[in-house]
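Long-time lurker. I teach an intro course on protein structure, and each term I like to show students one example going from raw sequence to a predicted 3D structure in token notation. This year I'd like something fresh instead of my usual example. Would anyone be willing to generate the tokens for the chain below so I can use it in lecture? Attribution to the forum is fine with me.
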Amino acid sequence: MIGVARVLVAVLALAMLAGCGSGDVGQIKAVIERANHEQEDAFAARDASIMQDTSTAANFVAMTRRNEEIAADGTVGIRLAKLEWGDVRVTSATTAEATTWETWEETDQSGQTLSVRDRNVYSLLKVGSSWKIENITYPDRQTASDQPSPSLAPAQ
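-- Reply from a regular --
Happy to contribute to a lecture. Here you go:
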């Protein structure tokens, strides 16, 4: 009888955790969607403070810098054109990871629009009862160090 009670308690505990996790997944998706729209609004208004509520302090600094870099490159407008979801996992009571594929459109001063699709991997922290974005990585982007040096580039 005690063995059955232990199994029942374990099953109930797992069911409760599963229920919390599914609610967390919805909250995580909502904060990522809101953060993307806040980035659009912050860029348009040239007011980074719009992005503060969805980010930790570290990510807020990174996103502010990102918008400044985009503007410095001559972009006058940005828009999230498409958001596709990959895995969203709660990894502990206070951490989570989510993968998206995001298609952003950037418009330059001449009115030309460039569309770019990237895989984004979000690391999130639960602060109180809210999820906040701690970091975003772009694992498929090539950096300058990934490019062949001019002397090693294939001849054309």
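Some talking points for your students: The chain has one domain: 2-141. DSSP finds two helices and four strands in the chain.
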